[in-house]
# Entry
Amino acid sequence: MNTQRLVLAGLATLLTPGLAAAHPHIFAEARLEIVSDDQGNIGELRNVWRFDELFSASVVLDFDKNSNATLDPEELKEVGQTVLESLSEYNYYTTIFDNGKSVKVNRPDSITVDYKDNQLLMMFAVKPAEAMPLKGKLSFGVYDPTMYTAMDFPTDDDLTVIGEKIEACKHQVVRPDPDEVLAENKDTLTDAFWNDPTGTDMSKLFATRIEVTC
# Structure
């Protein structure tokens, strides 16, 4: 497998709906911070992703050009740049709803990558592509629409809000029960499967999220 093939088979396999098999092959623990600005808008969403050791080792194998069994600063930078380009098509795995309306995010300035304790870490911030005032019901989550990568928030504290104005709003972490989602959306999910067997749109119903009500 040549230098960039792993990204297509790993970092980017999780980006390719046709390659997903409706269950995860890559596992990552995530943290998401929703930050408000002084004007009472959503300022940015800060992400930290920690990938499983098996996937991390495969990335090291593919990007370790000098064969020193780790990732040096330039190699880490290359991984970050590759992910920055690849994830743009998938809205950087970010799901935002502003009173029911889906909101895209702008391309982040960069994705910082580190390798510690045999695990790959990715850190970056994204900003909503349009103004999001703290009004009504807002929802934020991180999930892979191809379902190739499992993005897990180990505790509710890993989904949090930062900033005086957003902290004044009501916020709660929602962890959907799969059986309840299936029961409540039986007809819709059946139609969605035939229209899109990869489930790239409806899979968001199963994703952990934080809801903010102001």
Remarks:
- DSSP finds six helices and eleven strands in the chain.
- The CA atoms of residues 136 and 214 lie 5 Å apart.
